[in-house]
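Appendix B. Raw example, untouched.
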Amino acid sequence: MPYTLAKFFLWGLLMALAGGIVGWLLRSLKARTDLARPQTLPIDASESDRVRSELESAVAERDRLRMELADVRGSSAGALGFSTTLDTSTVLPEPVEPVEPVEPVDLDLDAARAVLGKRIALDDLRVVEGIGPKIAELCAGIGVMTWRQLAETDIGTLQSMLDAAGSRFKMHRPGSWPQQAALLASGQWEEFVALTETLAGS
């Protein structure tokens, strides 16, 4: 009797083990089939192109917004209420011709701070309305690094610089930059503020 029970128990154990192995093999086979199935599904080329196009558009828009944000942070456009995008429905004012810079003077930056309401550094091109850090770098690339140099630079040269820098700079209009720079270079702080206020209202 004990021998029969032991034999029955051993056969039951072997059957359970065999069932476990067969179940594990079947489950592995099913998992491999499930993993291979998506690779055999047909790919809709038009849908793939549409998704790729949407992603590329989103990335381009993100990069454009980052550049606009960098320009706004670097210039006083936001403080004066200027828009960083060009509204093509409005008529742009005619470019302001540069004024002849006066003889070099010792500039009183403390007086500038009192009039402008902020501390400025000598020959910082970013003080000029419409020039941010990136455009200041472009100006340096053509040898314009001071207010006086900017005042003596032709508007056409500045526009060519912007055009060559790419589409993200086409919204900027350099028509008043030499005149603004001339006022800064000669320490005419009140006149500079008056000009920027006029530009803000145009």
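End of appendix B.
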